[in-house]
Amino acid sequence: xxxxxxxxxxxxxxxxxxxxxxxxxxxxxxxxxxxxxxxxxxxxxxxxxxxxxxxxxxxxxxxxxxxxxxxxxxxxxxxxxxxxxxxxxxxxxxxxxxxxxxxxxxxxxxxxxxxxxxxxxxxxxxxxxxxxxxxxxxxxxxxxxxxxxxxxxxxxxxxxxxxxxxxxxxxxxxxxxxxxxxxxxxxxxxxxxxxxxxxxxxxxxxxxxxxxxxxxxxxxxxxxxxxxxxxxxxxxxxxxxxxxxxxxxxxxxxxxxxxxxxxxxxxxxxxxxxxxxxxxxxxxxxxxxxxxxxxxxxxxxxxxxxxxxxxxxxxxxxxxxxxxxxxxxxxxxxxxxxxxxxxxxxxxxxxxxxxxxxxxxxxxxxxxxxxxxxxxxxxxxxxxxxxxxxxxxxxxxxxxxx
Length: 402
Prior knowledge:
The chain is mainly α. It contains 16 helices and nine strands. The protein is globular, with a radius of gyration of 22 Å.
């Protein structure tokens, strides 16, 4: 919430389930709302590197006053200053990219923020841009493949790196874009066909940290993307109609959508929300304090899958594919299924894509709830197909733990 007190614009923001206030140097309501939105996004993804100086100063003041540990990127890092354009550090090149006017207004900006987080982990902030060339980018791709990242995910990260070099070229800092000389692997190159049996899935969930269990169950019972689930607020849940209502800023396709809540998910969400009633508050929190990020979600998952003995193991993103198979095998209408998942509508006989709001848009909440209640969740054994390698795992075919 933004309010004007005297000559200053003040923010009232829910962070970690607490309503906090802060003054801003904004001159207009629009500027104050932009600061508010930027801080909310930083808290949601758990990273403040992309914030502008004014946004960062307000955010840091909030965290300092509350005695909270600052988000990564709030406290200025101090690599040695570059002597010239060719000595530019990676962290500064990324900041320049995210600050570019076209990137700031791009709806994919948050996706680039996630991509750059992985890029920074690999290359490190004080890596000089001039040292990143074709062999280094190929090594990065190989590293991400070894971590189990899909071809589409790696492609998005390579696109972010290519965007960085493109903007540096516009500023005449570099003369070439090495990322454009490297092909990202396609999903066909690292083909994945995954199904996880209900018993295997529940065994994995039982071994996850308590804070992560409701998130993974939500993905399993809704087919939502990780970003959609992590960005979901209490106000998105309509308990009376058993519907999660996401606005266009919360979905990858930038269209609002309804996700029906099946019966097994109701107690999961009720427990996650507890007695909190702030509509802007995150549904899921780590130990009741801070929203999780995609990275914090992935690390425990990878460990537990390994402990359970599934190899190759399913990724968090694979849960979405499992939901699709369960929905298909349960006879869910294709258009409704694709709309809930946010997939592009198939083309009709004339080569035109059907309206995403066709049957789905006309269907009542009651109908969607009735449909989701017909979905069943046990359609075979666990099957992990990666490229030419297939593993079928069940209780009698587990790999021996090492």
